[in-house]
């Protein structure tokens, strides 16, 4: 189950970002992780998506289900035409989840971000309406 963070309401109302807690449907106080729709540009119909899970919640399909729900909602409710997912080149779990959902790997953005005092490459994936699996 996905729940909105009250303190993130301003960003949601500005149409820029949606940050959600991933919680156990049977015990909503039990938080499994967080999912975000960010860099939302409604004029260009683009957004990016990301997901983080606590170690105890990994390896049982929670991230895959979360990304599918959020992507479907972004396509249906926000008319998003391109959804991006980026991650570190060695983040195998994240890339597996992206490909399982139908995201297409587009390539590597070299020296893309600052990370722990160095610069780091980023792998970029995209998902278009109709490609969600
Ligand atoms: C990236 C991350 C979210 C992926 O979580 P995850 O638990 O590997 O992903 P899922 O919840 O979809 O689980 C997938 C695994 O569960 C298994 N699984 C079990 N039931 C499943 C189901 N119904 N549907 C999909 N997968 C299922 C799959 O076989 C898969 O295992 P595999 O990767 O060995 O093939 C998690 O590792 C994480 O939070 N990492 C740290 C933060 C991070 O890097 N975030 C990425 C930013 S985008």
From TrEMBL:
It comes from Actinoallomurus liliacearum. Coiled coil: none annotated. It comes from the Bacteria. This is N-acetyltransferase domain-containing protein. Pfam families: Acetyltransf_3. Gene3D superfamilies: 3.40.630.30. InterPro entries: Acyl_CoA_acyltransferase, GNAT_dom, Ribosomal_N-acetyltransferase. SUPFAM superfamilies: Acyl-CoA N-acyltransferases (Nat) (SSF55729). Residues 1-130 form the N-acetyltransferase domain. Transmembrane segments: none annotated.
């Amino acid at each position: 189950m996905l729940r909105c963070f009250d303190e993130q309401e301003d960003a949601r109302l500005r149409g820029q970002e949606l940050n959600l807690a991933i919680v156990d449907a049977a015990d909503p106080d039990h938080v499994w992780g967080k999912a975000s729709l960010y860099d939302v540009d409604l004029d260009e119909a683009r957004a990016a998506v990301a997901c983080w899970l606590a170690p105890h919640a990994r390896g049982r399909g929670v991230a895959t289900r979360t990304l599918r729900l959020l992507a479907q909602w972004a396509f249906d409710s926000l008319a998003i035409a391109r959804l991006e997912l980026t991650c570190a080149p060695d983040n195998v779990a994240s890339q597996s989840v992206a490909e399982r959902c139908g995201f297409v790997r587009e390539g590597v953005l070299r020296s893309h971000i600052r990370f722990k005092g160095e610069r780091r490459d980023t792998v970029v994936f995209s998902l278009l309406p109709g490609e969600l699996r």
